[in-house]
Amino acid sequence: xxxxxxxxxxxxxxxxxxxxxxxxxxxxxxxxxxxxxxxxxxxxxxxxxxxxxxxxxxxxxxxxxxxxxxxxxxxxxxxxxxxxxxxxxxxxxxxxxxxxxxxxxxxxxxxxxxxxxxxxxxxxxxxxxxxxxxxxxxxxxxxxxxxxxxxxxxxxxxxxxxxxxxxxxxxxxxxxxxxxxxxxxxxxxxxxxxxxxxxxxxxxxxxxxxxxxxxxxxxxxxxxxxxxxxxxxxxxxxxxxxxxxxxxxxxxxxxxxxxxxxxxxxxxxxxxxxxxxxxxxxxxxxxxxxxxxxxxxxxxxxxxxxxxxxxxxxxxxxxxxxxxxxxxxxxxxxxxxxxxxxxxxxxxxxxxxxxxxxxxxxxxxxxxxxxxxxxxxxxxxxxxxxxxxxxxxxxxxxxxxxxxxxxxxxxxxxxxxxxxxxxxxxxxxxxxxxxxxxxxxxxxxxxxxxxxxxxxxxxxxxxxxxxxxxxxxxxxxxxxxxxxxxxxxxxxxxxxxxxxxxxxxxxxxxxxxxxxxxxxxxxxxxxxxxxxxxxxxxxxxxxxxxxxxxxxxxxxxxxxxxxxxxxxxxxxxxxxxxxxxxxxxxxxxxxxxxxxxxxxxxxxxxxxxxxxxxxxxxxxxxxxxxxxxxxxxxxxxxxxxxxxxxxxxxxxxxxxxxxxxxxxxxxxxxxxxxxxxxxxxxxxxxxxxxxxxxxxxxxxxxxxxxxxxxxxxxxxxxxxxxxxxxxxxxxxxxxxxxxxxxxxxxxxxxxxxxxxxxxxxxxxxxxxxxxxxxxxxxxxxxxxxxxxxxxxxxxxxxxxxxxxxxxxxx
Length: 810
Description:
The protein is built from 26 helices and 25 strands. Residues 421-425 have low confidence and may be disordered. The two termini are 34 Å apart. The protein is α+β, with helices and mostly antiparallel strands. Helices cover 47% and strands 16% of the residues.
């Protein structure tokens, strides 16, 4: 029976080449798209599952409450709070303090000169100071060393296999070797662990003992009391049992109940747990490791993949029901000869299964070919296995079964349900089984999906264009940036580095600072303005920068002047937002007034700068002050002329290597760094564009098939109309208008849906575009034009046919 069904299925598919080709192309594209999206989503959902205790691992985060800003989420933990947690939270089986660092390790030279090798964390990596209890929480694969002893003493380091091979070529040679941390602190290799998988947020190149940072607090800016909170300082823990979640949260809520309370500012802080399973997806807190991706985006991606595949299935259903009346006699003959409904359903499902099977093979190969393009819209590395992953084969099999059922079941049941007498008398029409209404509904739904994706793509493109062209308040072009250490030896050589850089012909200015204008990195502090008796009810953000900062980045002064050269915090420049929040309308009023930071340091305001963006355009301006503090400079901005950029940047690196030979140079232009803030938006735009075009393609394939069927069904009608004087334009209009009405209806449904979803997306930006009516109009015109060209081809072909042949044919 199966062999017979297979033969008939292949014969039927060969007979209807056009419809087979349309269905095969649509299903192939849909399956390929679904596979690529599955690859992305499966990679992201696999993050951190390499740890055996995945379900019990937690991070301590916090909610900070202020009367001015309400609740603000964060993930730093003050150092004294860590001690209290270790003593009082009995639900923890193990707890580990960590301090994030991007410090450099060097292999010292035997003759005391420049180091033999120097490496730091690569882009996206973060090294950690931590305790041996870290290894009870995160179970790693140890190649050398003992996890319960490796990080107990100052000056201990554990390397990953990759980092050990960078330093010593063979990781087995690493244990016992001495490296230099920041070229100052000697550290001994106490262990080597296997490299972690790519989809893991803990992509550290090495781990340093927590005692090392405690012994070198000034070098690593380590320390602070209950009121000091750096995101570098965090706590991870292992729950004794996942059921103790609420009890642990209750215990954490009691930590710092008295110490965090500040009635004057209306401020308090509460600690709570964040599950490791949320670490990669919860953008309220962030993570210094890999890129955070929201679950909403993954759900959107999954939805797009499913919709693309459903569009292809709709095409199959539409074309199958359109041809149902042509196969009515076949069904009548088979039923007359004794075929039951079950055997007929099996026959028609066999046809669907054969087609889907071929599409699976072609779609899998197409996905494999297109897989390298995923790096444009995701973080999936090329080296992640594809077809060697058994999960992919399981997904392919499941997809094949579901697509076969979705695409083939309704047409099969419909065809097998024809009454043989009516079928043989050619009395089966679309109205017999509601085929026309179903096809119209599916066409509308197809274009709702396709046009919704296109509208989303247009709006993301416009928002990105707005972001890229918006005046940021500073000069981002032709500023070359790089970092250096902030140790005392480097601080002493800052001016020597500046002097070397200024000797390069195309270098205009050089500025040292804690960070560039739009970096997202700022300190904050409570403060008091002028002679006011109390601290303000909001915090002030701070940037440390030298006297060339304003000139290098083109900041605009609106009152006073920039502060003169200084090694310490004495004078400050503030921004407009600070004055507005203080209720000061005239910037000149602030000149000469004092700012008291915390409870001690007093600075004099000497200038007011026009607001510039310190964060991405998702966030509004912060109240900001800038002041000089030489030992907090670790970023450099070099303003250069546009001539011969390659030679200039090469000369900058040469100057850096001359003055700081023991450090690692990594330079980038400022506009490239700023672009990274909008990586998610670029990817969303590219996703909507790519899959929107696929949706249009698949929808138009269906229209093409339906138009061909309609033209075939109305051959004699068209011939008669031509004999009676109908023009080509009239016939094209006759055959096209019904389809174009469906496309227009799809636009009317897609418009409010797209508006709602994109309005919600734009709400994440403090600075955003307004959605204009023309975006929806352009989408509609594009869809109608493409649909008309698709349908028009078949309509013109039918209109140009010889009416004599049309009337003669049976």
